[in-house]
Fold this sequence. Notes:
The complex is a heterodimer.
Chain A: H1 10-28, H2 35-57, E1 65-67, E2 70-72, H3 74-97, H4 105-124, H5 128-146, H6 153-184, H7 189-198, H8 206-223, H9 231-238, H10 241-247, H11 250-265, H12 271-293, H13 299-319, H14 333-361, H15 373-376, H16 378-392, H17 398-412, H18 416-442, H19 455-473, H20 476-495, E3 497-498
Parallel strand pairs in A: 1-3
Antiparallel strand pairs in A: 1-2
Helix pairs in contact in A: 1-2, 1-4, 2-3, 3-4, 3-10, 3-11, 3-14, 3-19, 4-5, 4-11, 5-6, 6-8, 6-9, 8-11, 9-13, 10-14, 11-14, 12-13, 12-18, 13-14, 13-17, 14-16, 14-17, 14-19, 14-20, 16-18, 17-18, 17-19
Chain B: H1 3-28, H2 35-38, H3 57-86, H4 88-110
Amino acid sequence: xxxxxxxxxxxxxxxxxxxxxxxxxxxxxxxxxxxxxxxxxxxxxxxxxxxxxxxxxxxxxxxxxxxxxxxxxxxxxxxxxxxxxxxxxxxxxxxxxxxxxxxxxxxxxxxxxxxxxxxxxxxxxxxxxxxxxxxxxxxxxxxxxxxxxxxxxxxxxxxxxxxxxxxxxxxxxxxxxxxxxxxxxxxxxxxxxxxxxxxxxxxxxxxxxxxxxxxxxxxxxxxxxxxxxxxxxxxxxxxxxxxxxxxxxxxxxxxxxxxxxxxxxxxxxxxxxxxxxxxxxxxxxxxxxxxxxxxxxxxxxxxxxxxxxxxxxxxxxxxxxxxxxxxxxxxxxxxxxxxxxxxxxxxxxxxxxxxxxxxxxxxxxxxxxxxxxxxxxxxxxxxxxxxxxxxxxxxxxxxxxxxxxxxxxxxxxxxxxxxxxxxxxxxxxxxxxxxxxxxxxxxxxxxxxxxxxxxxxxxxxxxxxxxxxxxxxxxxxxxxxxxxxxxxxxxxxxxxxxx
Amino acid sequence: xxxxxxxxxxxxxxxxxxxxxxxxxxxxxxxxxxxxxxxxxxxxxxxxxxxxxxxxxxxxxxxxxxxxxxxxxxxxxxxxxxxxxxxxxxxxxxxxxxxxxxxxxxxxxxxxxxxxx
Lengths: 499, 117
């Protein structure tokens, strides 16, 4: 390896350095001033977001390149920008939430960045070993963060549950990888794709299929798709709210990104098999998520089930992928719909969780205790309404556009039943989102008013809600980008390999 | 005969050798048990309680620290062996790796992880 190849690792190196810097700041910052570490981190993350965009526009920078198990392309960059946005918002949510627990604050912001680093590597990995290591790197700090409030038994329980589920997930993933290796004799994705394309009979090797299915199970655990979703509500309920906001978005986006690379670009010969599998997964995930959400009283549990349903919608995109032709980008509606919906999910879910963070800092955890919020704090109620409507998919918000693309993709792939099921599910989901809105707006209760959110929270909520509105009205900002992202994925990993 | 065959023969001979020796020694040795001889340990402490006690969590912490630096040594040795052929880049790379672990060590120290309370 020569030093010049380091250029494609710049995003990772930047995030790692920032995390280490935060740890060092933590040693020298006196108690009571630790919130400044959070502010510093947020500002630096913004700088990185701009910096990476400029980096990609620089003509000296390779548009797409790969180094052994690591790929850098527009696809990875798109995801990296999304992760930076999530960690920016999560940092701002946390700054005032953890004001009281001064011990370990610097550590907390560094942990957020370590998870982000894991996500970065995950969407860039082109080797099964790299995949496993970054998967672990993404998961382990999250276990610690769930149990961040050591003295709160619910927080510890949530951390322990997440850890146990995570251990099973890693075991499944590793077993799957070992079987895939046994069937193909390589862990490198490039070699793997070449092998699958050239030797079509390899595709229906039962050991390979079993390995891939085990890996898929592990991914489904992480994104909480339906037969593997049971942990999500329990973990979300116990963990501190800003951690949940982060946990519900970043790892899910990372794993979806990885699945896109692995199953859609990598396993083209297996396409007919995946379509059926993903269609069934999507149908169950949407329906179970939405039907269970109808009965939830706790806000975090409600959003947990709503998040499960959202993942179901994204899986519709996976089901409606049409086969790629080598070196010939076809119109991939499903593929673009997935990329778009991830951004939509990011803004809507983070806005909703930001409000839940703010409410939970003031002791409101249940739907019932939202009574009269519209009078006590009209701005918060309005922002919550917007984020919930976006999650439900009401025009002109970003959730609507995302769902429109997904269902359009399903229709264009002749999966009419799946599109119909998705629409029915959206209607069901509207019921429980509007139930929250009704409690806020039409049920009166006299009580103490809640203080206005802090400055950092205001900024974060503003960013999230503006994202919902602006991208909802003008979606081409993202679709334009996801069209560019599409092209390299199908051919670059093989043709631009650095040695 | 292929390699697997040799291994099987070795396996069979090994197992038979052990069983045969046990059998032979049972024919030759005297057999006069008493209470002292049948105790769990003929010499040393009599065990008490079960082995399923809760160990102090600090031992676990120290074990984790030990493993971290153990793995560090594990990486250093092969690196040291081939350093000459790898050149300056590998040297800098390893310095960065050591620097990361160094920060981790100071962090543990600062947070009181090395203190036996």
